[in-house]
From TrEMBL:
It comes from the Bacteria. Residues 370-401 are annotated as: Disordered. Residues 379-389 have a biased composition (Low complexity). The keyword Translocase does not apply. The lineage of its organism: Bacteria, Bacillati, Actinomycetota, Actinomycetes, Micromonosporales. This is MFS transporter. Gene3D superfamilies: MFS general substrate transporter like domains (1.20.1250.20). It comes from Micromonospora fulviviridis.
């Protein structure tokens, strides 16, 4: 587990920085506008969102190593060719690179579900969420620093090399994606989607989307607030405080004796985000985002935990890919939604819009989870949900119970 988390951290830090690397290349290397850079970033993000379930399904059917090595090769080709592609071709290539991005995050989550017992899984997913926060803190900062010291082409090559190295490292480790006693898709056949893509999975995907919509919007609201105060240079400090608080929250949550429901954590995250708009300078804003930061990693970890418990083992790759797609879509839409709220009102409206998006997703997810036919849903009582494939299945239970 330690080796997997270390190698996947390298890949995830580079993947979180890929949009920044392409932005710096288009703006500095091609001397084009930020709007043009946003087009490339949007193409890459759209590819990632669409490719998650496809790659997950391929992993379920073909195995881990073949998919990882294929994506590694394609990433090497893309990032090496970035400096020689004209803008029009770069748009299409970025979409293709996103579609076949190394699935480091999804594979890590699948491996955690396979390598841990029911009692260990919550703490392991909390640690995975901490890993994600560290990647967001480190990756973009390294790219910005590298662009200031070297050329944007070199930075693009470095990001590609790190993605490829991380993917190759995971392939070399070849972590198990099925626990003992869990059959893969080839052995038992894939259950129809209508049997596992029910109210429970839809609820958790809704909350995954809502959580990242909130997080994607908060970053923009922070910048808008400090820009109005004439302190925009302090935005990096506020974002860093937010990230450190999230890391601390993930470690604390992983050590708790009993988990909390996903809808409750997301609802609390939405509630504490709204009053952050009352802060008008950077010291108060640092204090205001601590509460949201403490709840971020726990919320994301319970989402990942719920997907691993709800999805049957034979389709866990596709389910994890759907989770990644929902989160990517949330990040992509968070900034535009909050941006509209800021333009229509004031920076405080951005925090309100982000918080309300989280609350709406928590309410929707909570209501949907109550419609699930399972006697105990991991979304509402995660502490009592068992590991898929490790407990006797009741005769009246649906697949994945």
């Amino acid at each position: 587990m330690a080796a997997l988390l270390g190698v996947s951290l390298l890949a995830r830090a580079a993947i979180t920085a890929d949009v920044m690397a392409l932005t710096m290349y288009v703006v500095l290397g091609l001397s084009m506008s930020y709007a043009a850079a946003g087009g490339v970033a949007a193409a890459l993000t759209a590819g990632v969102a669409l490719g998650g379930p496809l790659l997950g399904r391929m992993i379920d059917r073909r195995g881990l190593r073949s998919v990882l090595l294929t994506t590694v090769v394609l990433q090497v080709v893309f990032w090496l060719s970035v400096p020689i592609l004209p803008y029009g071709l770069l748009l299409g290539a970025a979409f293709g690179a996103g579609l076949l991005m190394v699935p480091a995050q999804a594979v890590t989550r699948q491996a955690i579900a396979a390598m841990t017992t029911a009692g260990q899984r919550r703490a392991a997913f909390a640690l995975e969420s901490v890993q994600g926060e560290l990647s967001y803190i480190v990756g973009p900062a390294v790219v910005i620093l590298g662009a200031a010291k070297t050329s944007p082409s070199v930075v693009a090559w470095g990001v590609g090399a790190a993605i490829a190295a991380g993917g190759a490292g995971i392939a070399l480790l070849n972590p198990p994606l099925r626990a003992d006693g869990e059959a893969d898709a080839g052995a038992t056949g894939r259950p129809p989607r209508r049997e596992w893509l029910g109210a429970g999975i839809v609820a958790v995907l809704t909350m995954a989307f809502g959580a990242t919509t909130l997080l994607g919007g908060v970053d923009l609201a922070i910048v808008a607030t400090l820009r109005e105060a004439g302190q925009v240079s302090w935005a990096a400090v506020v974002v860093a405080v937010f990230g450190v608080a999230s890391v601390a929250g993930g470690l604390i949550y992983g050590a708790l004796s009993r988990p909390l429901p996903t809808w409750l954590l997301l609802g609390l995250l939405g509630l504490v985000t709204i009053p952050a708009g009352l802060a008008h300078d950077w010291p108060w804003l640092c204090a205001a985002v601590v509460g949201a930061g403490l709840l971020t990693a726990p919320t994301l970890s319970t989402v990942a935990d719920a997907v691993s418990r709800l999805a049957p083992a034979s389709v866990r790759g596709e389910a994890t890919g759907l989770q990644s797609s929902a989160q990517s879509a949330g990040f992509a839409l968070g900034s535009p939604i909050v941006g509209v709220a800021i333009d229509a009102s004031m920076p405080a409206g951005g925090f309100a819009a982000a918080g309300l998006a989280g609350l709406a997703a928590a309410l929707t997810g909570g209501l949907l989870s109550r419609r699930s036919p399972r006697r105990r849903s991991p979304l509402s009582d995660p502490g009592r949900a068992g590991a898929p494939g490790r407990e006797p299945r009741r005769a009246d239970a649906r697949p994945g119970t």
